[in-house]
Amino acid sequence: MALQDFIALLDAWGVTDVLIPFILVFTIVFAVLQKTKILGDGKKNYNVMVALVMALAVVIPHIVGRY
């Protein structure tokens, strides 16, 4: 019962609507940028910023309700 309550609490906080898609998109975009080295070799800060913007561009319209 405690696990079910914890999962319901996380769902009430919006983890399934906001946090999980953000982490998923950020991780995939960052990994692709790191692997392909599109922005240059050793440009981790740029890759993080691009992945952050892409993840926010996916999650924010979902939160606001404007697709």
Care to describe what's here?
With 67 residues, this protein is mostly helical. The chain has three helices and no strands. Helix 2 runs antiparallel to helix 3. It starts with a helix and ends with a helix. 7% of the residues are buried. The model has no long low-confidence stretch (mean pLDDT 90).
Low-confidence runs of at least 5 consecutive residues:
none
- What is the radius of gyration? 15 Å
First-to-last CA distance:
36 Å
Structural class: mainly alpha
How confident is the prediction overall: mean pLDDT? 90
Features:
single chain; 67 residues; mainly alpha; 3 helices; 0% strand
Chart the SSEs and their pairings:
Elements: H1 2-13, H2 15-36, H3 44-64
Helix pairs in contact: 2-3
